[in-house]
């Protein structure tokens, strides 16, 4: 038996990686390739008007740090976690606000303190906002979540060599791609017996529509660490 994490290994702390390795075979396989978009002139003008940016992913944070000159009026950055706050503060000299919980709705609540300013969310092309855009709240798509048929086949070639009893799923799009991979595997029925671990409500609901054993953290802080610890605890 082995564990599958649909998450980049480099973003898992060294301590957690050691614990996972000591507990048995583990495969890190994020079902995505993120690419920064070329921003149009119209989108550049929208960025120039931003006074508050909202950043809910590490890749969007990378794009923001690499293009600070596009956001000359930004004085506040709202981020999802303390780790992201630390990363953004390395180059951004304005105020950094951390979401109370690591999810979109909590992050949205923090932005309400700045309702009199132009708020721009920096997101990927799979982002589904839980709010309505208006004159004061905008969404700027700064990266693409890319996945090709060749990526699916490459994943099949890796996963066919394992029987996974625990799977960490980090997004609905990753799960949809996983379902396509499972359909191409000869041992597809084994996936029905596995336990699935999620980080947020949307992913939890998506996975629960297909499998019975699905877990979500009760508290939305340090959700990745909580999920890994739950996986390790369930296997004892």
From TrEMBL:
Q: What Pfam families would the database entry show?
A: HEM4
Tell me the Gene Ontology biological-process terms attached to this UniProt entry. tetrapyrrole biosynthetic process
Task: Give residue ranges for domain Tetrapyrrole biosynthesis uroporphyrinogen III synthase.
Answer: 26-220
Which InterPro entries would you find in this protein's record?
A: 4pyrrol_syn_uPrphyn_synt_sf (IPR036108), 4pyrrol_synth_uPrphyn_synth (IPR003754)
Q: Which GO terms describe its molecular function?
A: uroporphyrinogen-III synthase activity
Record-given protein name: Tetrapyrrole biosynthesis uroporphyrinogen III synthase domain-containing protein
UniProt source species: Furfurilactobacillus siliginis
């Amino acid at each position: 038996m082995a564990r599958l994490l649909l998450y980049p290994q480099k973003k898992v702390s060294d301590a957690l990686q050691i614990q996972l390795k000591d507990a048995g075979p583990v495969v890190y396989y994020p079902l995505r390739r993120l690419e920064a978009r070329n921003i149009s002139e119209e989108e550049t003008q929208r960025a120039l008007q931003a006074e508050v940016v909202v950043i809910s992913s590490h890749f969007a944070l990378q794009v923001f740090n690499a293009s600070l000159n596009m956001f000359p009026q930004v004085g506040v950055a709202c981020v999802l976690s303390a780790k992201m706050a630390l990363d953004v503060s390395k180059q951004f000299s304005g105020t950094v606000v951390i979401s109370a919980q690591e999810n979109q709705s909590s992050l949205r609540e923090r932005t309400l303190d700045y309702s009199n300013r132009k708020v721009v969310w920096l997101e990927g092309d799979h982002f589904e906002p839980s709010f309505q855009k208006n004159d004061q709240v905008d969404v700027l798509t700064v990266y693409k979540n890319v996945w090709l048929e060749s990526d699916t086949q490459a994943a099949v070639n890796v996963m066919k060599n394992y029987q996974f009893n625990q799977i960490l799923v980090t997004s609905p799009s990753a799960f949809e791609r996983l379902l396509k991979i499972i359909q191409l595997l000869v041992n597809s029925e084994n996936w029905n017996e596995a336990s699935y671990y999620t980080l947020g409500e949307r992913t939890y609901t998506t996975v629960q529509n297909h499998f019975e054993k699905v877990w979500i953290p009760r508290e939305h802080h340090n959700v990745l660490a909580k999920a890994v610890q739950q996986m390790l605890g369930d296997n004892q």
